[in-house]
Amino acid sequence: MNIAIFGAGSTGCYLAGQLCISELQVSLICRPAIKQKIIANNGITLTDYNGFKQTIMPQALITDINQESSIYGKFDVVFVTLKCHQVSSIANQLMAITHDNSSIIFMQNGLGSFDSIKDSLDHYSLLQGITPFNVLQLPNAVFHKGTEGVFTLQANPHTIAIQSALVNHGFGCDIEADFTPMIYGKLLLNLNNALNAVTDLPIKQQLSHYKNRRILAKAMKEWLAVCEAADIQLHQYTKVKPSWLPTILLLPNVLFTVLAKQMLDIDPKARSSMWEDIQAKRKTEVDYINGAVVSIGKKYGIKTPVNQAIVEQIKQLEQRH
Ligand SMILES: NC(=O)C1=CN([C@@H]2O[C@H](COP(=O)(O)OP(=O)(O)OC[C@H]3O[C@@H](n4cnc5c(N)ncnc54)[C@H](OP(=O)(O)O)[C@@H]3O)[C@@H](O)[C@H]2O)C=CC1
Ligand SMILES: CC(C)(CO)C(=O)C(=O)O
After folding, report:
1. Which of 64, 140, 256, 289 meets the CB 3.0–4.6 Å disulfide criterion with 110?
2. Ligand 1: residue whose CA is nearest its atom 14
């Protein structure tokens, strides 16, 4: 099985590393800067909050699809690990590097990016996937997993084969048939991405302050109300049910520290991907996360002032670029 990672940055390189270690054939489609870093450091190094460390070199590092006619029609599976707003423009490139029986797996957070491309690729097996953990890109081509969780992929024969390779090599991988609860449930957790970027603190430190948790609880309550109105069930990613999360967040510090032990059992350095975007002066995905709460809320007549305010705050930070 020939696998490509299209847009290999933080999560794409982490996924590529796990797949290569699992003895799968993996090529990266990435920016020249990432290629240079990987070559200079003799491969991608994966590390995690439990002390895991391994370096591996992917099969190929491709920076310009147009210059590489040997990859036309080559890939059986393509993981798209671009940011949400980068997805809609790559349909032609995906068609060039795949064949009729290929699977294309979209790994974006939030809502809207999959819809922005799926009609252009309707003859393919299009799937979605989730990265439930945080990946921080560090110097020397080191990609650090800061929180717990395993890649979660929508079921088909390709993803089931990939799961088997990952599990056989000591990495977990979950397979789910119905992905709507996965995507909507992940969005509930991603409501913290923007708040983490605004507070400019590691997630663990950010959540130790009651006033930060209170805003997150309010943003989450809005999304839970929207999902209830839309009759959408949310996948449970944490030890407690999604609907209980705001109540847990609103506990006083002492009780929160005890009851939310799992939520706080993360790398003290872990931040959200939106924090990384703001730091790197990149466009963020706020429109696909808090912005999605606002737009779907409007459709169902649910007021979402907290998420609206968060969108505006992030837009201001983006304008400082
Ligand atoms: N980072 C994290 O911890 C997590 C991220 N996610 C989600 O995963 C998705 C991917 O995020 P992440 O991995 O952080 O994103 P990154 O920005 O780190 O990776 C995307 C990479 O693709 C590059 N790129 C953009 N366009 C092209 C192109 N046409 N050809 C080749 N390379 C291209 C980007 O370069 P450039 O920057 O120059 O555009 C960047 O290097 C997002 O939806 C995010 O929300 C989910 C869970 C955790
Ligand atoms: C894993 C999590 C929730 C960490 O904040 C994330 O999805 C992100 O950073 O984008």
Report:
1. 289
2. 10
